[in-house]
């Protein structure tokens, strides 16, 4: 439960990050953030603890020896006002997010430990480590492909790899049934993914 995800808003209520419940509660306890409820009320740690005593049906709860806390879905930072850059860093975590923890050859979703990053054009054949040349592959598909090109091993990609849009990783992976209704108020997919005319 402490590793579930919480949407983080800057002080202007713009989505800037996702953190764990553990980190969110730490920020709230340190008075660096406040919890945002479904009716847009904000709560400090003590007022959230008091509200949590009444509980809510179908709302996850964290139990401590002395009290219980409702799991927050959104927090707003007290001081941070920046907006994240509109580029997504090229790193292992973001490749997993872009490919939705799914093998891009067979479509299976094995455990994270059974997925690896594969170069579509192998590095030994001049392929580079960039968004357009790396995908997630399960052990079986990665072994089958080996050091060959797709045409040589008779394999196809489910979708071509590309650099993700700025907020797409935040939207694709983290919206779950538990947090969707509240998060969508701050992360509107249509708003962020609509093409703008020059």
Provide a descriptive summary of the structure in words:
This protein is α+β, with helices and mostly antiparallel strands. It folds into two domains: 106 residues, no CATH class; 62 residues, DNA Binding (I), subunit A (Orthogonal Bundle), CATH 1.10.30. 26% of the residues lie in helices and 19% in strands. The strands form three sheets. A five-stranded mixed beta sheet has the order 2-1-7-3-4. A hairpin with a 5-residue loop joins strand 1 and strand 2. It is elongated. The C terminus is likely disordered.
Return the domain count: 2
- How far apart are the first and last residues' alpha carbons, in Å? 45 Å
**Class computed from helices, strands and strand pairing:** alpha+beta
Regions with little confidence, pLDDT below 50 for 5+ residues: 189-198
How much is the radius of gyration in Å? Answer: 20 Å
> Count the strands?
9
Strand order of the largest sheet: 2-1-7-3-4
How many helical elements? Answer: 8
Mean pLDDT: 84
What is the overall silhouette?
elongated
Briefly summarize what is shown:
With 198 residues, this protein is α+β, with helices and mostly antiparallel strands. 26% of the residues lie in helices and 19% in strands.
Output the keywords:
alpha+beta; 8 helices; disordered C terminus; 2 domains; 198 residues; two-stranded antiparallel ribbon; 5-stranded mixed beta sheet; DNA Binding (I), subunit A
Secondary structure layout plus pairing:
Blueprint: E1 5-9, E2 15-20, H1 21-29, E3 33-36, E4 42-43, H2 45-52, E5 61-63, E6 68-70, E7 74-77, H3 92-98, E8 115-119, E9 134-138, H4 139-145, H5 150-153, H6 168-174, H7 180-183, H8 189-193
Parallel strand pairs: 1-7
Antiparallel strand pairs: 1-2, 3-4, 3-7, 5-6, 8-9
């Amino acid at each position: 439960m402490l590793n579930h995800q919480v949407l983080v808003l800057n002080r202007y209520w713009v989505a800037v990050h996702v953190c764990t419940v553990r980190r969110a509660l730490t920020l709230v306890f340190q008075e660096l953030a406040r919890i945002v409820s479904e009716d847009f009320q904000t709560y400090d740690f003590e007022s959230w603890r008091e509200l949590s005593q009444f509980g809510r049906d179908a709302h996850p709860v964290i139990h401590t020896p002395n009290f219980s806390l409702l799991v927050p879905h959104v927090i707003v930072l007290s001081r941070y006002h920046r907006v994240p850059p509109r580029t997504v860093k090229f790193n292992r975590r973001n490749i997993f997010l872009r490919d939705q923890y799914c093998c891009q050859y067979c479509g299976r979703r094995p455990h994270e430990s059974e997925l690896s990053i594969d170069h579509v054009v192998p590095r030994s054949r001049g392929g580079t480590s960039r968004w357009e040349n790396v995908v997630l592959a399960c052990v079986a598909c990665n072994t089958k492909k080996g050091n060959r090109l797709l045409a040589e091993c008779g394999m196809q990609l489910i979708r071509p790899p590309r650099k993700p849009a700025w907020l797409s990783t935040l939207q694709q992976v983290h919206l779950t049934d538990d947090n969707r209704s509240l998060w969508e108020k701050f992360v509107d997919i249509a708003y962020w993914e609509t093409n703008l005319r020059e």
